């Protein structure tokens, strides 16, 4: 049996739960791209306007950005569905997990709850986030 490693001080190590999305504020989205395109058109030199091919290239790039955002959204939905299906398959299985106090516990999954971002396995009446599970095995 392994012993959990504690951090500085007396608090036990805590296993963080996994996340499914990441919000980055340092990246430009389609709104920023569209604002730049409109500003470029507004302030272009009337004596030397933007060529049609350059404008079409920029419009195609904008369309690509929109489609990539749509694909990312669909992937997030598929990931959520896959996690739900995987969680449902745990019912009746024996699992081990790291508890809040850093100890390893075992039990049998009686049901799964889908409240919030991450499904939770219900083991002996307690809800355990799937990110805390360390081992899954068939019941004995």
UniProtKB/TrEMBL annotation:
Ranges where the record places region Disordered: 1-21
Family: Belongs to the FlgD family.
Signal peptide: none
InterPro entries: FlgD
Compositionally biased spans, kind Low complexity: 8-21
Pfam family name, one: FlgD
Keyword Ribosomal protein in record: no
Gene Ontology biological process terms, A to Z: bacterial-type flagellum organization
Keywords per UniProt: Bacterial flagellum biogenesis, Cell projection, Cilium, Flagellum
Taxonomic source organism: Geodermatophilus dictyosporus
Name of protein: Flagellar basal-body rod modification protein FlgD
């Amino acid at each position: 049996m392994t012993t959990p490693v504690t951090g500085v001080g007396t608090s036990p190590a805590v296993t963080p739960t996994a996340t499914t999305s990441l919000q980055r504020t340092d990246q430009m989205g389609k709104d920023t791209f569209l604002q730049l395109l409109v500003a470029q058109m507004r302030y272009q030199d009337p004596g030397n306007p933007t060529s049609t091919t350059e404008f079409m290239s920029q419009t195609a790039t904008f369309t690509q950005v929109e489609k990539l955002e749509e694909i990312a959204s669909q992937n997030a939905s598929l990931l959520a569905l896959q996690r739900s299906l995987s969680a449902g398959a745990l019912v009746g299985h024996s699992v081990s997990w790291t508890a809040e106090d850093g100890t390893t516990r075992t039990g049998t999954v009686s049901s799964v709850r889908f409240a919030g971002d991450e499904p939770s396995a219900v083991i002996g009446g307690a809800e355990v986030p799937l990110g805390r599970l360390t081992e899954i095995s068939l019941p004995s």
